[in-house]
Amino acid sequence: MKKLFIDIGGTHLRSEIVSEEHTAEDMVSSQEVGLLSYIDKQATLHPDISFIGISYAGQVNNGIIAASPNINIDEYDIASVVKSRYGIPLVIDNDLNCAVRAESAYWQSDNIAALFVGTGIGAAVIDHGSLVKGSRNMAYEIGHIPYQETPFFCGCGRNNCIELFASGSGMGKWLKHFGSDHDLDLNRLKNSDIEEERLIASRFEDAFLHASGVLVTLANPEILVLGGGVIEQNPYLGTLLEEKLKRYALNASLEGLRIEMSVLKNAPLEGAKLLETQNG
């Protein structure tokens, strides 16, 4: 029997089909292929799939997708539809909830927070060994805390989310706003000859520090793990956080705090593999 594990974000859908003999990896654009359409294809190609675990960059609860600012949704009631159509049990959870499960296992910590920056910015927390979910599984949606108003809108419909500053999509919107056609590259923006591009980088750093400070102050973790594409491409952000976090977080919350860079190849996908036993 095979198991299908999926990590879908605002840019890519990555998957692994795992059997005792082999693991088959795949990656497609999440802007071009819907999640249900992808599952339909894989279930047809691999009729012996016995379980599907999904890490999803959006708000999900009890097998239902509530919203996703950066993904086009082709089916909300995904678990029920897949179960009805193929008889395959499916567990889906927010991508950061999945990531923090994997990071907790790797770092062997029961008090850990994950902050990942890629297309969006997200966070999740495990406190005394339990994932902090909230009443509708939407705890620590850090990307959508109010920050500063902008002349454009977040995918959630508001124009003051911190994700509009501290994320890849946010930087892209600022570049478009200023009329720049340059590639999205934080390091290049920091060293640009164009004042508006340097401003985008500066605003990103300040918003990233603010989000980190809020997370550490509220969650009081033993370990804060940083990950996601923007972090991986700009590892200096870890050093920046070490140097300046004390200006953005409660001092008492910083005592004993370790800041680590994720070393997992794909923490959300690794966390999706834990959903069968942890059941979302």
Automatic annotation (TrEMBL):
Gene3D superfamilies: 3.30.420.40. Belongs to the ROK (NagC/XylR) family. This is ROK family protein.
